């Protein structure tokens, strides 16, 4: 009993340390990505239930149905739980896929291609990666090869990846004109492929 109490106190202390250090940093990053994400997290509008072991996840559905918000919340929960069990040195990254691919393409076409290689290596090896709006850009050889390189590495090295997309995996494979990437995502996520069919919360003026 005494050992269990000490263990619980250590877990709580780790979580408090995370709250003091990582949470503000993560929330500020998300605020720059999407004001809607910031609003929902700070007001606790959604409170999904997750296990202590969060693996890869694919979320798809129409625009404005809450995929990005849920992915962001899931990322924060993953970071909090890692901290609670003593893994304070882990890192998570939330990126818009279209903006990311444009950043990488410009770096690839510049004289300093090393920056692109370094960035791709970071995306492969970071502890948790969230790819928001997957397949939002037109498929090209560069787009496909870049996404395949990142996702296949993470799949092979058991690193969790959260993806949001407007399309299911069958349509994604069709848009990319290749089913290898969709197949890896499906196998990596298992049953954690979620369809968002709620009414859009974005107001069209």
Number of individual domains: 1
Q: What is the CATH architecture descriptor?
A: 3-Layer(aba) Sandwich
Average pLDDT works out at: 78
Unreliable stretches (pLDDT < 50, length at least 5) are 46-52
The CATH homologous superfamily is called P-loop containing nucleotide triphosphate hydrolases
The SSE string, one letter per element, is HHEHEHHEHEHHE
Explain this structure.
With 205 residues, this protein is of the alpha/beta class. The chain has one domain: P-loop containing nucleotide triphosphate hydrolases (Rossmann fold). Helix content is 57%, strand content 13%. It contains 8 helices and 5 strands. The chain has a 5-stranded parallel β-sheet, with helices on both faces. Helix 6 (141-156) links the parallel strand 3 and strand 4. The longest helix has 32 residues, at 2-33. The termini are far apart. Residues 46-52 have low confidence and may be disordered.
Features of this protein?
Rossmann fold, 205 residues, alpha/beta
């Amino acid at each position: 009993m005494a050992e269990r109490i000490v263990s619980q106190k250590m877990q709580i202390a780790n979580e408090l340390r995370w709250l003091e250090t990582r949470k503000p940093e993560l929330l500020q990053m998300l605020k720059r990505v999407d004001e809607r994400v910031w609003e929902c997290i700070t007001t606790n509008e959604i409170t999904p239930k997750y296990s202590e072991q969060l693996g890869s996840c694919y979320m798809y559905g129409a625009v404005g149905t809450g995929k990005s918000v849920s992915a962001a919340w899931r990322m924060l929960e993953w970071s909090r739980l890692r901290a609670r069990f003593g893994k304070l040195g882990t890192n998570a990254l939330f990126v818009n896929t279209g903006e990311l691919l444009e950043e990488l393409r410009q770096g690839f076409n510049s004289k300093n291609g090393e920056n692109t290689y370094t960035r791709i290596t970071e995306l492969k090896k970071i502890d948790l990666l969230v790819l928001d709006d997957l397949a939002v850009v037109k498929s090209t050889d560069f787009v496909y090869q870049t996404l395949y390189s990142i996702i296949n590495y993470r799949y092979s090295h058991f690193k969790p990846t959260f993806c949001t997309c407007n399309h299911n995996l069958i349509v994604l494979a069709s848009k990319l004109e290749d089913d290898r990437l969709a197949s890896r995502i499906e196998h990596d996520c298992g049953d954690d492929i979620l369809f968002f069919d709620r009414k859009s919360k974005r107001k069209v003026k």
